[in-house]
Here is the input.
Amino acid sequence: MNVVIVLLNILTTVTLLAGLFFLLAGAMGVWRLPDLYHRMIAASKCITLGITGMLLACVCHLAVLGFEPPVEGIDPSRRPSVVAVATKAFLVILFQFVAAPIAAHVLARAAHRAAVEKYHGTLSDELEEDVKSSGVSPPRSPTPAKRRHRRGKKAGVGFEPTNT
Here is the structure.
């Protein structure tokens, strides 16, 4: 057996297990952490690292398949290129590393503006401190009951059919 194939198989297993570990840690964090803000950290950071491990394992596995001799009855030109798969995986990893933190930041800021309750053990709220020091209060999202009241509807009553 070729040493390169053995090393690539070991690397595939290690990156796959690392990715699965981070995905499991992210899922446990979303399940166990006390409030929305902490759960978003688990969801964005751990899931990003988990997807990275899974995609790197995929690239390593396809590199192993590239060393194997062609199988009879299967056209070798139909075999996926390792370079093409690695490029796509790199682009997905790059997009994930850019998009997940931005999405988590936007969701956390929207939750803060909507006055979502924080965990009682939270030590500091830097956004609130910045707002207080600037003297400008950000607009708060109205509660659903206030939104319905503003439209002239009672809270809890949906659309009613009109007689024509």
In short: The two ends are 81 Å apart (CA to CA). The helical segments are 3-32, 36-67, 82-113, 126-134, 144-150. The chain has a mean pLDDT of 80.
